[in-house]
């Protein structure tokens, strides 16, 4: 395969920010008891790429029997954003992520597709100094399947030349839906979820670069290491 386009998820792929969001959800639901907080976190980890809006709707209906209004969803989302935004901005990078992005942004086409709201991920990318390396940065309320198809069609991308880097089932689902290559970024939070996964995977971007080099998927300058 030859890769010319890469779609990046953000949390757990570019930044080690999954735990920051896990902690924020726990803090929001802990007043309702440890049992509910534990169930919230279990659902969050198993549905990592699902937007916070859909998660809040699910939890409010499941735990409290409420069909909540969009106004209430927005209130919860704003409360969550206040808890998590700075933590995500200052979280550690996934090993080698920044170097890989900067090294190949001139020869490959990069986009971010995430479950984080678009307005928020734009702020995060700007604060982390990453905006200029991506053609587009896209998040919720649109789902990842929407964005993969939108970008493929609007930029006339070839599916066989496009790779989705993700760490959640929604990332894998979007890649499969749009018939893209997929590489799983492995971490502690998704180990059990992907225990039977046999496809391309990586822990660090130096490992991913090695895989892509070995398969001759991209042109590698071997004098530069991430």
From TrEMBL:
Pfam families: Hydrolase. One of its GO terms (molecular function) is phosphoglycolate phosphatase activity. Belongs to the HAD-like hydrolase superfamily. CbbY/CbbZ/Gph/YieH family. It comes from the Bacteria. GO terms for cellular component: cytosol. Its EC number is 3.1.3.18. The keyword Hydrolase applies. It comes from Jejuia pallidilutea. This is phosphoglycolate phosphatase. Pathway: Organic acid metabolism; glycolate biosynthesis; glycolate from 2-phosphoglycolate: step 1/1. The keyword Secreted does not apply. One of its GO terms (biological process) is DNA repair. It catalyses: 2-phosphoglycolate + H2O = glycolate + phosphate. Signal peptide: none annotated. Keywords: Hydrolase. InterPro entries: HAD-like_hydrolase_sf, HAD-like_sf, HAD_sf, PGP-like_dom2.
């Amino acid at each position: 395969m030859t890769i010319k386009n890469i779609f990046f998820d953000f949390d757990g792929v570019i930044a080690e920010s999954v735990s920051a969001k896990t902690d924020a959800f726990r803090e929001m639901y802990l007043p309702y008891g440890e049992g509910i907080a534990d169930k919230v976190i279990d659902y969050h980890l198993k549905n990592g790429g699902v937007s916070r809006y859909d998660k809040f709707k699910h939890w409010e209906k499941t735990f409290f029997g409420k069909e909540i209004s969009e106004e209430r969803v927005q209130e919860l989302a704003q409360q969550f954003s206040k808890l998590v935004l700075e933590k995500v901005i200052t979280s550690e990078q996934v090993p080698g992520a920044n170097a890989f992005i900067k090294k190949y942004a001139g020869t490959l086409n990069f986009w971010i597709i995430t479950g984080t709201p678009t307005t928020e991920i734009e702020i995060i990318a700007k604060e982390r100094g990453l905006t200029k390396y991506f053609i587009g940065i896209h998040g919720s309320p649109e789902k990842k399947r929407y964005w993969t198809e939108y970008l493929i069609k609007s930029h006339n991308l070839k599916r066989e030349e496009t790779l989705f880097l993700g760490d959640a089932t929604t990332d894998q689902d979007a890649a499969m839906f749009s018939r893209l290559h997929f590489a799983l970024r492995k971490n502690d939070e998704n180990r059990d979820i992907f225990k039977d996964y046999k496809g391309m995977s990586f822990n660090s971007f130096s490992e991913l670069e090695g895989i892509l080099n070995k398969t001759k998927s991209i042109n590698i300058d071997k004098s530069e290491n991430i």
